[in-house]
Amino acid sequence: MPSRKPAFNKRVNQLRAYKQQHGHLNVKDSQDRGLIGYCYRLRKAFGSNSLSRDQIEILQDIGFEFTKDASPVKMPPHRIEELRSFKQKHGHLNVTWTQDRSLHAYCSRLRKAMMSNALDE
């Protein structure tokens, strides 16, 4: 392996083993907490350009995806209308739990999806 980092090589081998066992690299927290944390750190390092070209190539070769494929959050028309109405009434989109529990929960899921690039366009 071109990488000079033994810890990186060890984790890549763990990722290969995970893929062999599960058929994918979408590591679930319940399956391997340490490995999911490592995948998170890899994605973060990739986003901040902290991985070497060799490391990126090795990870791409095993099928590692640098953007997490979370379940997309759909934006149904009725939610868009609820948000428009809320903004018109309150002048902002900071929906609190006490104002509208359902809309607040939806906005929280939407924000998380935006952070992980999982919005379904």
Q: What does this 3D model show about the protein?
A:
The chain contains five helices and no strands. It is mainly alpha-helical and 121 residues long. The longest helix has 17 residues, at 6-22. It is elongated. The N and C termini lie far apart (39 Å). 7% of the residues are buried. The model has no long low-confidence stretch (mean pLDDT 82).
Biggest sheet descriptor: none
Name the poorly predicted regions: none
Determine the mean pLDDT.
Answer: 82
Roughly how many Å apart are the termini?
39 Å
**What pattern of helices and strands is seen along the backbone?**
HHHHH
Helix content: 55-70%
Instruction: Give the beta-strand count.
Output: 0
Q: Tell me, what's the shape?
A: elongated
Which band does the percent of strand residues land in? under 5%
Kindly provide the radius of gyration, computed on alpha-carbon positions and rounded to a whole number of angstroms: 19 Å
Given helix and strand content, the structural type is mainly alpha
Number of helices: 5
